[in-house]
Design a protein that fits this description.
About 80% of the residues lie in helices and about 0% in strands. The protein is mainly α and about 100 residues long.
Length: about 100
């Protein structure tokens, strides 16, 4: 009988702890989500993120040209032609690429 009472008390305690824990967890999650939304909508944060993205694209463009210049003559013709067409596309100021991304 004592073992059954112990088990029942343990199960009830576990259930109460679970319910209270999930409620507190959900409230904390909502607080964190609200704080993250406020930070992401901050103009200073948005400007910094846009600036970092622009610098990243510029760096990637420079790296692309340096690498393609150094290994261009060692690539198979099919790959070299693809690189050449990509260079021409970027020189013409095309905003998109094959994956639907753009330089915005």
């Amino acid at each position: 009988m004592a073992v059954m009472r112990y088990r029942l008390t343990f199960v009830v305690g576990l259930a109460v702890g679970y319910v209270l824990g999930t409620k507190a967890g959900r409230e904390r999650y909502e607080q964190l989500r609200k704080a993250a939304r406020q930070v992401s909508q901050n103009p200073a944060v948005r400007n910094t993120a846009e600036s970092a993205a622009l610098q990243g694209r510029q760096f990637a463009d420079k790296a692309y040209h340096v690498v393609s210049d150094k290994v261009g003559d060692r690539m198979p013709d099919s790959v070299a032609q693809r690189v050449k067409s990509l260079r021409e596309r970027s020189a013409n100021g095309s905003a998109g690429d094959d994956w639907g991304t753009s330089n915005t």
